[in-house]
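Human: Cast an eye over this sequence-structure pair and say how the chain folds.
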Amino acid sequence: MYSFLIFALTCIPQFTSPQSPLKSECHFEQMTQSIEFSPIQIVMEFETEKKGRKVDKESGQYAMVFGDSRYALVTANTGAKGHLIMDFNARCITTITKDKNGEIAAVKMPLMKLGNGMMKDLVQTIEETPDRKTILGYDTRKYIVKSNGNVTESWIANVDGIDWGELAEAMFSGKNRNMSSLAPSIEDMPNAIALESHTTTSGGKKVIHSYVRVLAVGDQADLSALEIPADAQVQDMTSLMKF
């Protein structure tokens, strides 16, 4: 089975967040840290084309950070800016925004429960090719992934220090086991990563290019995105909303 975490690197996350500030008591905190594995920081650039022309509002940069039982996604482009933190141990998701006055707001909500097997048929076919090239000093092999009408050409490398199975075990084991439907079984995850991808969407209306610009593992990874900024006004809705 093709790793969900690898597949995630071939897709461009696009989300918008409310820009209005939230009035609530300001307090400081750090997210839960309870399980150890090698942290990972991935910074990617992406560019969307329509009819051969770059779409600025759908192009930009995003970063993904994995540490302990947490995952952070930070996007920056013309059309939207956002910062999400998922804490699988605390079972909450935090959306962080900054308004035009520079005020930072963070809203914490419980993670939604997803049905079993939602990711099972996410990727339909994957084809290995003999093509190879070097990216960021890594030897990569070209794979062709076909999913729900989308066709992605990905250059994938094995990277020392990255252990998706260890990461999945940290995120989805123990009391988090009921969330394991977010990813395929741990033993099916190859220790590899897509360093460059080109996706043609169903119908050929868009072509999305993505490139890993920073790949850091262990002590080299910047984990600051996993923390709620100290000056954020935090609104905790985890006790008010149950899924």
In short: The chain has two helices and twelve strands. The radius of gyration is 18 Å. Residues 4-236 form a domain with the outer membrane lipoprotein receptor (LolB), chain A fold (CATH 2.50.20.10). The chain has one domain: 4-236.
